[in-house]
Design brief:
Elements: H1 2-14, H2 21-32, H3 37-44, H4 52-89, H5 108-122, E1 126-127, E2 133-135, H6 136-139, H7 150-154, E3 166-168, H8 174-182, E4 187-196, E5 207-217, H9 222-237, E6 244-251, E7 254-267, E8 270-273, E9 278-288, H10 290-295, E10 304-311, H11 312-320, H12 333-339
Parallel strand pairs: 1-4
Antiparallel strand pairs: 2-3, 4-5, 5-10, 6-7, 7-8, 7-9, 9-10
The structure holds phenylalanine.
Phenylalanine (PHE) binds near residues 251 and 286.
Length: about 350
């Protein structure tokens, strides 16, 4: 009996102290665990002779209940204090004024891609996509640029494996191959997207954006190409009159090939498109090479057409007066806030593209 009293006094006084959950759990197992003090006392009952047995059992039960109750009380206190702490932390003052609502902005490159897609869809182009990670066949070989062709070196390619089979596409032209190999002509598509070359300065970034154009049908000629680009530039810059010139160039996948410059001038520090006598290169183009058509099983005797590749970032810089290409990709929130567009203002040709 004195043993029981000792246990009771010792543990009740322990339970008076400030305890945390793990300390309480320890007390619980010290008393009621498999080899706990109280559990061991219960095991003794069987070996005690009457009449002590009855009294011992009754005393033990009373002490067990007392200790149990003290533990429960302690657990209860902890629970309540935890709830109170939480409430204290999560206090909301509903009388405070609302926080300024910060709205996201559309990046000028995304806006420009939307504008370009809208302009070309007006004249029957649909939008295609291709992956950033390409194989060398689609990026080069099928585009009439075989192994060891010098044009491969011009591209500063990021190869992804030792055998130079996988790469980050250096232009959007592989989408021409993807589109033509899975469908039948005619084709009239644009393909905007990211492209990669190992190159970086004020006007070059290792990742940049292009939009590919491809129109293949019966009797398509260079006049159609010129008309299409003329329409596009006018719509994109929202001007009536443009100056455009075709310079002979070379791409393995087009013959003849040309680069297109647009005329501009700088007035009061602002760039004005369509006037003046300065020229700015904005795209490469040409009539699709018969070898490219053969590579995708299109008969060049029946079908011909043109292709072009426009640098999107350059167009965005010109239209929105941004003078360092690298700022596009710096993720500076203040810059985005200044040059970005309202997400609800989707560009359409009817409503005006950029207003
Ligand atoms: N792919 C070429 C480049 O990146 C551009 C281009 C596309 C030229 C289509 C002609 C036809 O430089």
């Amino acid at each position: 009996m004195s043993d029981l009293k000792k246990i009771k006094d010792e543990f009740l006084s322990k339970l008076q102290k400030k305890l945390d959950l793990s300390e309480i759990n320890k007390i619980k197992s010290d008393l009621f665990g498999k080899n706990g003090l109280i559990s061991s006392e219960f095991k003794k009952i069987g070996s005690i002779a009457e009449p002590e047995k009855k009294k011992f059992a009754s005393d033990l039960n009373i002490i067990k209940d007392e200790l149990q109750e003290a533990i429960n009380l302690k657990l209860n206190q902890i629970e309540i204090s935890e709830i109170n702490q939480k409430l204290e932390k999560e206090k909301v003052d509903v009388t405070l004024p609302e926080r300024t609502f910060i709205r996201g902005k559309i990046h000028p490159v995304s806006q420009t891609i939307d504008e370009i897609s809208s302009i070309f869809s007006e004249i029957g182009f649909s939008v295609e996509e291709g992956p950033d990670v390409e194989n060398e066949h689609n990026n080069f070989t099928a585009l009439n640029t075989p192994d060891n062709h010098p044009a491969r070196d011009m591209h500063d390619t990021f190869y992804l494996d030792k055998n130079k089979k996988k790469l980050l596409r250096t232009h959007t032209s592989p989408v021409q191959i993807r589109t033509m190999s899975k469908n039948k002509p005619p084709f009239k598509i644009i393909a905007p997207g990211r492209t990669y070359r190992s190159d970086s300065d004020q006007t070059h970034a290792p990742m940049f954006h292009q939009v590919e154009g491809l129109h293949i049908d019966k009797n398509i000629n260079m006049g159609h190409l010129k008309g299409c680009l003329n329409y596009f530039i006018k719509e994109f810059f929202e001007i009536e009159k443009i100056k455009m010139r075709f310079r002979p160039s070379h791409f393995p996948f087009t013959e003849p090939s040309a680069e297109v410059d647009i005329g501009y001038e700088i007035k009061d520090g602002k760039i004005i498109i369509g006037e003046g006598n300065k020229w700015l290169e904005i795209l490469g183009c040409g009539m699709v090479h018969p070898n490219v058509l053969k590579n995708v099983k299109v008969d060049p005797k029946n079908y011909q057409g043109y292709a072009f590749g426009i640098g999107i970032d350059r167009l965005a810089m010109l239209k929105y007066g941004i003078n360092d290409l690298r700022s596009f990709f710096e993720c500076d929130y203040r810059w985005l806030n200044h040059f970005g567009f309202d997400p609800l203002d989707v560009p359409t040709n009817y409503r005006g593209l950029s207003r």
